Amino acid sequence: MTAYELVVRSRRVVTPEGERAAAVAVRGGRVAAVEPYGAPLAAPEDVDLRDLALLPGLVDTHVHVNDPGRAHWEGFETATRAAAAGGVTTIVDMPLNALPPTVSPDALDAKLRAAEGRCHVDVAFWGGAVPGNVEELRPLHDRGVRGFKCFMSPSGVDEFPPLSPAELRATLTEAAGFGGLVVVHAEDPALLREPGGPSYRQFLESRPDAAERGAVESLAEEAARTGARVHVLHVSSAACLDVLEAARARGVRITAETCPHYLTLDAEQVPEGETAYKCCPPIRSRANRDLLWDGLARGVLDCVVSDHSPSTPDLKVPDFAAAWGGVSSLQLGLPAVWTEASRRGFGLPDVVRWMAERPAELAGLPGKGAIAPGRDADLVAFDPDAAVRVDAARLHHRNPVTPYHGRTLRGAVLTTWLRGRPVDGLPHGRFLLGAE
């Protein structure tokens, strides 16, 4: 009988083949075997979850940690604790809102120094593409960033300016030359305007659907022209879906994501002055939300990731024109999405595909995102029927601000294992650089 370090059994293990009763055996931090539920397997620890679900650790490819420089907004220690508490075992850190932003190898080194010894889950990194740094992209790629984030409209921070159309083309051409991925905040600045006042309606009108759709059309055209691989970040408008479908039909290498807040919240329910709901692009109508779910079901949208973009509470002033735009939800993405997905008839395998498998593929992390032999033993014990009322003060991210405060969500993360080891308050996360 082969000895393993850990066996976790469940009648609801979510594997690439679907949900089934199984025993997951771990050796050397990896899944060594997936056997029948009752198989006799020797291990010093044998955990039987019975009817609780066992999921692969989620992969969140859109997290703003803001460290170094703005760690008072969010730092690696707090962000990765929140991730683990939410069943996320790998994050990919965004390059902006840190000082310096990750737009050169030296800036990446500063990021790594800030994160060293503080990560409770594994961390990979995006580089940044800004005006004037096209020559830094290949060196950053060689250092192991997963791709390059850029903006087509102002980012909200002066140190990370948007790319002009010519600069975007140069970035895509450069990235295509070495097989890099460019991930894009796609809003057309010509169609954005200043909100006419402090209300949510005025903020929403200032960032219309047409701004997203037009930017995605332009991006798809440039991707076709340059041959680059591109990914559209945080799609909030269903007006983008047919553009994405048409581009793929003609062979453009374009993928897209959406976020829990676009799938679970809607403009009709945003309370006036509650700027925890403010994000860019904005949360749109209930009818739009239904169409986003249809886009997920049809595979037009590839993945669901948090866009966790926190700030200190003082920046969330009760004025939608002036408040910082960003939703804090890293710990809550799984129960938020499961609450709505289960109501709409989707299953846990669907949620795992959107929140683990596809994000791992996007970021080039072949060891992540699935319970299968050879993959990292990143596992999540999940009670899909638990009802949990959200208390922002009890969440692990640094500042107690979230639009989910006071909501009751379905599903609770009970235990998170990182490479077969329970996340226990000590930082055992690794950096995922290069081909890992």
From TrEMBL:
<dbReference type="GO" id="GO:0004038">
    <property type="term" value="F:allantoinase activity"/>
</dbReference>
<keyword id="KW-0479">Metal-binding</keyword>
<dbReference type="GO" id="GO:0006145">
    <property type="term" value="P:purine nucleobase catabolic process"/>
</dbReference>
<keyword id="KW-0659">Purine metabolism</keyword>
<dbReference type="GO" id="GO:0000256">
    <property type="term" value="P:allantoin catabolic process"/>
</dbReference>
<keyword id="KW-0378">Hydrolase</keyword>
<dbReference type="InterPro" id="IPR006680">
    <property type="entry name" value="Amidohydro-rel"/>
</dbReference>
<dbReference type="InterPro" id="IPR017593">
    <property type="entry name" value="Allantoinase"/>
</dbReference>
<keyword id="KW-0862">Zinc</keyword>
<comment type="subunit">
    <text>Homotetramer.</text>
</comment>
<dbReference type="InterPro" id="IPR032466">
    <property type="entry name" value="Metal_Hydrolase"/>
</dbReference>
<dbReference type="Pfam" id="PF01979">
    <property type="entry name" value="Amidohydro_1"/>
</dbReference>
<dbReference type="InterPro" id="IPR050138">
    <property type="entry name" value="DHOase/Allantoinase_Hydrolase"/>
</dbReference>
<feature type="domain" description="Amidohydrolase-related">
    <location>
        <begin position="54"/>
        <end position="423"/>
    </location>
</feature>
<comment type="pathway">
    <text>Nitrogen metabolism; (S)-allantoin degradation; allantoate from (S)-allantoin: step 1/1.</text>
</comment>
<protein>
    <recommendedName>
        <fullName>allantoinase</fullName>
        <ecNumber>3.5.2.5</ecNumber>
    </recommendedName>
</protein>
<dbReference type="GO" id="GO:0005737">
    <property type="term" value="C:cytoplasm"/>
</dbReference>
<dbReference type="GO" id="GO:0008270">
    <property type="term" value="F:zinc ion binding"/>
</dbReference>
<comment type="similarity">
    <text>Belongs to the metallo-dependent hydrolases superfamily. Allantoinase family.</text>
</comment>
<dbReference type="InterPro" id="IPR011059">
    <property type="entry name" value="Metal-dep_hydrolase_composite"/>
</dbReference>
<dbReference type="GO" id="GO:0050897">
    <property type="term" value="F:cobalt ion binding"/>
</dbReference>
